[in-house]
Amino acid sequence: MTFTVAALADGAVAEPPSAVELPRYDRSAVTASVVHFGVGGFHRAHQAMYLDAVLAGGEMRWGICGVGVLESDRAMRDALEAQDYLYTLVQKHSDGTYEARVIGSIVAYLYAPDDPEAVIARLADPATEIVSLTITEGGYAISDVTGRFDLQAPGVAADLRPGATPRSVFGLVAAGLARRRDAGAAPFTIVSCDNLPGNGALAREAFVSFACLLDPDLGAWIDAKVCFPNSMVDRITPTTTAEDREALEARFGIQDRWPVVCEPFTQWVLEDSFSGDRPPLERAGVQLVADVEPYELMKLRLLNASHQGLAYFGRLCDYTYVHEAAQDRLFQSFLRGYMDQEATPTLDPVPGVDLTAYKAELIERFANPEIRDTVARLGAESSDRIPKWLVPVVRIQLQRGGQVRLSAAIVASWVRYAQGVDEHGAPIEVVDRRRDEMMALASRADSEPLAFIANRHLFGDVADDPRFASAYLEAFTSLRERGARQTLEQLVSAVA
Q: Which residues are within 8 A (CB) of 151 and not within 5 positions of it... i.e. 6 or more apart?
């Protein structure tokens, strides 16, 4: 028998599937003290899951009101509204075991383009304690080179016009905080959950900079009163497919418009710094710490940067899925070489973490055949990811006289990928908000090999170092003349 998610969780089904975990609390008693911008797959597999556990512990204030600001968010709004904001989270183990859990922590959703005032009112409500964000690595409008706020970012200039109705996350949040300040109410905490080094500090730079341009007094108030805790978030969450929906119905008898699939592993390390009250996240398994930086750098430089190594070389070696590449011993040797010889030397000790075991576990996680994450997903938005995840490794290694050969090869593989044609002449779909610029630079690489890495917006001054330029040229020349697999073989043989 097949049931809808809403029917299962609302108790309309007398005998729900025993294998499905349902919310263990009365959702009608939940209030939303958290407003979250960017309700996508990762948020629903991660933060919303943790808050679901908090609610199950009897802390009924900590529900979530989702907010969408992009046209693409409309579909999520519609899917969640149709099933009372419930959805199924499916954990896929490498042995083929699936665990299904209905998540009930999202209790409302506001679509800002239709009603920005409703979003501002929710933010201004003193009951809102936390505003959290998964707005992508590029969503903060911070230059990778200068570290400063970009006034030309989409939506920013429009929201700064006198009398403008706020449309961007910056404009909406600033408006909500302005009302709280004017009413004498305490501010909320802003929590970034995006994969950025110092994501709290970057969020502060972005929101304070915007507010200062709008109203210098407001900007100063936000800077003084609002906490922006840093965080590290981790859970591999591929894009939901039609096959995922079909498998959920076949295995568990559940119809869900937009379920989420993910790996079993999950981690959230959060700086314990809040403007007001916070949920008891530690009871749900969140690590509340004084300093997130060692954890976040470990994850960004080992997991996220390694994902980029898998993405471009994987596609050029004709792999479609991440696990296919990660199960290839050649790729495993390449990734371990990068992690051991280039990324790890840039890291300080991480409290409570055995880095050797962590790196081995990463390979196992990448190789999970049930996740079916695609190399195309990992290769998307590279112009936002490479500067934040890989270039810092290169910069530190150059400063300390360390190796950069494998990092340079990852950059070269990105350039080859961005040329938009694989080794058989088939097209590669390049997904990047700077797609045209990246592809234009990559198209010049055959005749002007250094043109791509000379882009200071992406690489700063690292291309000026002859060690990096030489390693990049060697890898790119090999990719062009020998192909990706032979290039990897040559790189790995030199590392061994």
A: 157, 160, 213
Chain centre distance of CA 383: 14
Place of tokens 């729900």: 16
- Which 8-state DSSP code applies to residue 241? -
| d(C-alpha 41, C-alpha 33), whole Å | 21
User: Which of 347, 350, 344, 342 is CA-nearest to residue 295?
Assistant: 350
Residue among 418, 410, 417, 389 nearest 468 (CA): 410
Nearest to 191 by CA among 80, 88, 62, 31: 62
Structure tokens at 380: 């998307």
Instruction: Identify how many contiguous H helices and E strands the chain contains and give both numbers.
Output: 23, 14
C-alpha distances (whole Å) from 134 to each of 38, 69, 304 are 5, 12, 16
- Tokens describing residue 468: 């990096």
Helix 466-481 to helix 391-400 angle (10° resolution) is 130
The strand pairing partners of 288, in sequence order, are 270
Q: pLDDT 10s digit of each residue in the chain, 496 long? A: 788 998 987 777 777 788 899 999 999 999 999 999 999 999 999 999 999 999 999 999 999 999 999 999 999 999 999 999 999 999 999 999 999 999 999 999 999 999 999 999 999 999 999 999 999 998 999 987 788 898 888 789 999 999 999 999 999 999 999 999 999 999 999 999 999 999 999 999 999 999 999 999 999 999 999 999 999 999 999 999 999 999 999 999 999 999 999 999 999 999 999 999 999 999 999 999 999 999 999 999 999 999 999 999 999 999 999 999 999 999 999 999 999 999 999 999 999 999 999 999 999 999 999 999 999 999 999 999 999 999 999 999 999 999 999 999 999 999 999 999 999 999 999 999 999 999 999 999 999 989 999 999 899 999 999 999 999 999 999 999 999 999 999 999 987 6
| Per-residue three-class SS string for 268-299 | EEEECCCCCCCCCHHHHCCEEECCCHHHHHHH
Beta sheet of 287-289, edge-to-edge order = 231-234, 267-271, 287-289
Question: 115 and 36 in contact (C-beta within 8 Å)?
Answer: no
Query: 446: which 2 tokens?
Result: 């055959």
DSSP 210-221: HHHHH-HHHHHH
